[in-house]
Amino acid sequence: MMKPVMTLSALLLSVCSLNTLAAEPSFPHLSTSGYGEIEVTPDMAEFTVRIVKTELDAEKAKKRVDAIVDNFIAGLTAKGVKKESFTSSNLYISPEYQYPERGKQELVGYQASRTMTVKVEQLDRLNLYLDLALASGINQVDNIQLKVRDQGQYQQAARLAAIKDAQTKAASLAQGFGYDLGQVWRIVYRQPSNQPVLMRSMAMDSNVESASYQDSLIKIHDRVEVIYQIEQP
């Protein structure tokens, strides 16, 4: 009964060994990586607000939150914001308790909450929409993300910069060690996870200035790993 298991184990070990050998070239080689980064001025944004209200009655808490969301949506629509540019979450209601030193927990009310996310197509209108949120009764911004349109073209530029960086490093290393740089044997590329610029998480304040949004820069990066053959001159 043990023999088939031992045979299978030996086979798996053999395959793993072959894969390991195949992963490393048998000829002299040079491994390097290239990094590219592009700085871009943001031209759009996205922000998320959170509406939270606590009342003794769950239905009253729900109505207060819904009223604020409806006011904000109406204001956005009046400013020409399209429906596909904003989304709102489902209502979430949770009981609130207080815990005295002695005795059982006591129900003191219900907290109702919803979040809304707004996509700002024109960055210079960001302050306008934040002021509108404040006027609607929203007092908390979870985050403001600065973004750039057509990120693909900037990603391509960062990728080409990474390729050039890898080539330059490889040529310099080969020359420094007295070798000639040969053909590319392997290229490893993993899609980078570029994140939009997160400005801040804050409470809404009518005195907050966001003129610095246009002065911010988004860094788009890319990376590539390359293995070259190298030869004696």
Write a concise synopsis of the structure shown.
The protein is of the alpha+beta class and 233 residues long. The chain is 34% helix and 36% strand.
Shape: elongated
Overall CATH class of the largest domain? Alpha Beta
Order of helices and strands: HEEHEEEHEHEEEE
CATH homologous superfamily identity of the largest domain = Protein of unknown function (DUF541), domain 2
Distance between the termini: 58 Å
Largest sheet: 7 strands, antiparallel
Estimated radius of gyration: 29 Å
The oligomeric state is single chain
Poorly predicted regions: 1-22, 201-208
Strand elements, count = 10
Structural class: alpha+beta
Signal peptide: 1-22
InterPro entries: 26kDa_periplasmic_antigen, SIMPL/DUF541
Keywords: Signal
Protein name: 26 kDa periplasmic immunogenic protein
Can you tell me about this structure?
This protein has 233 residues and is of the alpha+beta class. The strands form two sheets. Strands 2, 3, 4, 5, 6, 8 and 9 form a seven-stranded antiparallel beta sheet that branches. Strands 1-10-7 form a three-stranded antiparallel beta sheet. Strand 4 and strand 5 form a beta hairpin. It has two domains: 97 residues, Protein of unknown function (DUF541), domain 1 (Translation Initiation Factor IF3); 104 residues, Protein of unknown function (DUF541), domain 2 (Alpha-Beta Plaits), CATH 3.30.70.2970. Helices cover 34% and strands 36% of the residues. It starts with a helix and ends with a strand.
